[in-house]
Amino acid sequence: MFVLGIDPGLSRCGYGAVRHGRRPAAEAAGVLSTPAGMDRASRLAELQSDIRALIAELKPDVVAVERVLFQRNVATAMSVGQAVGVVLAESAAAGCEVAEYSPNEVKEAVAGWGGADKLELAEMVRVLLGLPDLLRPADAADAVAVALCHLARIGPAGAGRGPRAPAGSVLR
Fold first, then answer.
1. Among 60, 147, 165, 171, which one is least packed by beta carbons within 10 Å?
2. Among the options 90, 108, 139, 142, which is catalytic?
3. pTM for the full model?
């Protein structure tokens, strides 16, 4: 199984693609960003185009998205919610299975407890993937954690489905 994890945001949208195997392997990780000076509709259209291209390139079986539960800043919550909508719609339109997880579910599945901070989560991502260094930026590490959460939640039986991503993909 090949999972594309998304840590949604309008300014910075982290992504991380993880292939199930004896040891999970990250094949892509990075951040999609939109210019702050651009109007919101244009930024959402740019994010939509970038998500569509990313899904077309990676061909994931599942897109796992971190759910937005609470934000102190209402404007930020609205823009993140809109970004989530773009990701969900593009994923479904591409025929991908879609799963959503709360931040606490991601932390629990990857770090072992729902109160883990960003550094603890990034360190567990590094350990679980056998990477020499922490993934940077943090949005990419968070997105990989969402993908790992999905693999942990479905267990070995659910993860045994055949891969759809190209064999030559690399961590970028």
1. 171
2. 139
3. 0.88
Distance CA 99, CA 5 (A): 9
DSSP 78-101: HHHHHHHHHHHHHHHHTT-EEEEE
32 burial level (CB within 10 Å; 0-12, 13-18, 19+): buried
Please say whether the beta carbons of 27 and 17 come within 8 A: yes
Dist CA 13 CA 26 (whole Å): 17
Active site residue 7: yes
Q: What is the pLDDT of residues 15-35, one digit of tens each?
A: 999 999 888 999 999 999 999
How remote is the C-alpha of 64 from its chain's centroid?
6
Q: Is 61 a catalytic residue?
A: no
Which among 27, 61, 66, 108 is annotated as catalytic? 66
CA triple 12-15-17, angle to 5 deg: 175
The conformation of residue 145, written as its DSSP 8-state character, comes to: H
